[in-house]
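Good morning N.,

You mentioned wanting to compare the apo and holo forms, so I went ahead and generated the holo version with arginine. This is what I fed in:
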Amino acid sequence: MDLPSLLLCILVELLAVNCLDMAEERIVGGYAPVPHSIKYIVSLQTTDRQHICGGTLINKYWVITAAHCNIGVDKMMVVAGDYSLSIYEGTEQEILPQFLVPHPEHDALNNNNDIMLVKLRAPVYLNSYVSIALLPKQGASVAEGRMCRVSGWGYTSSSGGQIPSTLRTVKIPVVSTEKCNSTESFSGTITETMLCAGFSNGGKDACMGDSGGPLVCEGRLYGVVSWGRGCAEAGFPGVYTAVSKYRRWIDETISSYYGRCDNN
Ligand code: ARG
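and this is what came out, ligand included:
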């Protein structure tokens, strides 16, 4: 093979892999929940209504999401009470953020401390479409094998195809950090502030567009969708920020802003 064809081959290969990667990003193997039955989830959007990440309401003024979802306070909008992103259902509450508090030690290289708090300018109204999620206690853990629910507006199919505009959800088991860190899996890149969840055969997982969204176990928000290798691949569970390791930081951050009226 001559050099130009070889280069072309490499380019096609790279593009194909990238296309696959992109197509594989979103909740895989899940289903559409009863509309408005998952009331604590929010869609983080750009001010021109492009969905970028999920998030979770933890009280009327605060949302938890991933630090890598930080697009800047001026570009972000929070939508609660949503189900279909493309249809106006009359249940949506669109609220602008007042400020963003990404974790001060967020490391974009190894995805460590991938957590961010979003303070809303106005409180959400809690009603039959919108509610909050409970947080785990500082340091609490969920046992391996316990089933958790991850939800989001991410891609549904590893073969690409359509981007769903309705919410999807799936139940997956917690994987021990030991297994997740084994050489057949993530080879030591999982820190103790991360949590892995997924079936060993793959098939069900979160994906790009689901980032920042909730992983709820035993009725509490134990994980924030953070990263993975592809989506729903056997041997590679999804990796979540372990919320229980940040309970103190969350409480301290929220109380340090309590009663502040500054507009920045
Ligand atoms: N980083 C992705 C996002 O920004 C989420 C990836 C989750 N991947 C996974 N296989 N669970 O939306």
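The CA atoms of residues 95 and 163 lie 24 Å apart.

Happy to go through it together on a call whenever suits you.

Best,
F.
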